Amino acid sequence: MTTIGQWRLRAAFAARLSRMYGREVPAYTTLVDVSREVNEDVLRARGADAERLGSIRRVTAERHGAIRVGTPGELRQVARVFGALGMRPVGFYDLRDTAAGALPVVSTAFRPVAEEELARNPFRVFTSMLTVADPRFFDADLRARLTAFLAGRELFAPELLALADRAEAEWELPAADAERFLDLAVRSFELSAEPIDRDWYATLERVSPVAADIGGVRSTHLNHLTPRVLDIDELYRRMTARGVEMIDTIQGPPRWEGPDVLLRQTSFRALAEPRAMRAADGTVTRGALRVRFGEVEARGIALTREGRALYDRMLDLVDERAAHRSAADRGDIARAVWAEHLPVTEQGLVEQGLGFCTYHVAPGRPRGGRPPAEAGALLRDGWVRAEPIVYEDFLPRSAAGIFHSNLSGAGSRDSAQGAAAYDAGRLSAAMDREVLDPFALYERQRERSLARVALALRLDAVPQ
């Protein structure tokens, strides 16, 4: 009997989701085509150096999606579906109080965590949950109405959840069951044609367009699907040249002369999509909503806890210096701040404890003599080489910036109210599975590589 393992399920799901989203949002297909063209051009120009953060096969196939759910119960079901694909919840992102503005959601990202699984297919889904319990956004009356509405809908068919549980438990599915699982899973994230209650949607939209997109409809859907590109600035230029309206900025670190770090993102603007709207008297008319867009990303080196703290301080410094300057000046200010505070090489990042890498015994290492028992010395003396660890996760400020750049309204928030407590522990309890710490995953990956080096060089251990 032919069976389909989790990583092949994951790869097939990502590919089918991409085809579905291309049918629903044709501009996404343009985005994918331009991304592929840019990647091919960068590979021709830079050769093997273009693949330092992942093979071109991986980069070209890479996608991350974004979805939104309303309740802890719905989040738990999402976790079961993605668990079938070998994807674990990693990281906690609170978007309610970011610099870009307030959004009534907290998020995690489902992704593979093992190195070999990431190499096979690194599909990720950034998943946001509505913070219904936060009184700054929802007063008691609206909270009760919203809770009742969400309790009355079903996002995922029981058959899909049963197949998901089996795939997670057994790490595979028979081919026929795998086909059924994929069909049901993709359908779960299609845009529904069911008419939307116009008044209810408008009520939630006054709080936030994101709240309306989550709680104003009886289904969920894919909000965006993101290819990875090796030169996001060139992609932005080419998309604009094709007449596609892009958001105003590229979110995240600036383009500068040093190594790419963390994550840069941009998107084309959310499109006005026709939707059926039901009035209070039951009549159905055609309307339009702007909730889905096409995002693209460029990934860099994962930063350590110290590196990430420095990144956050640099952002604050850029904000301070750019406060009374034009928006056009911000990029130059950011580049100057980066040059002041970050080393201009990958090795400098590693040596200063700012960037994550894996260590590998160098083919041309010294012959004879005793190798030093410390990672930095092994690197400097040519015993080992370092390979950067690609950043697999997200940035709350950048995610919020993308969200806000594609919203049709600012929404509202009662700042006199106290914020409801949401954290990684609360999401873990909701899903009955731990939200993993991304830093711990990168640290583990680095430590495993050092253990392999120690074994190969016959050292007791190699401290960082």
UniProtKB/TrEMBL annotation:
Task: Look up the record and name the cofactor or cofactors this protein needs.
Answer: Fe(2+)
Provide the top EC class: oxidoreductase
> Which SMART domains does the record match to this protein?
DUF1338
The record's comment on protein family reads: Belongs to the 2-oxoadipate dioxygenase/decarboxylase family.
Q: Which UniProt keywords apply?
A: Dioxygenase, Iron, Oxidoreductase
Q: What is its EC number?
A: 1.13.11.93
Q: CDD domains, from UniProt?
A: VOC_YdcJ_like
Protein name as it appears in the record? 2-oxoadipate dioxygenase/decarboxylase
Q: Does the keyword Iron apply?
A: yes
Annotated Gene3D superfamilies: Uncharacterised protein PF07063, DUF1338
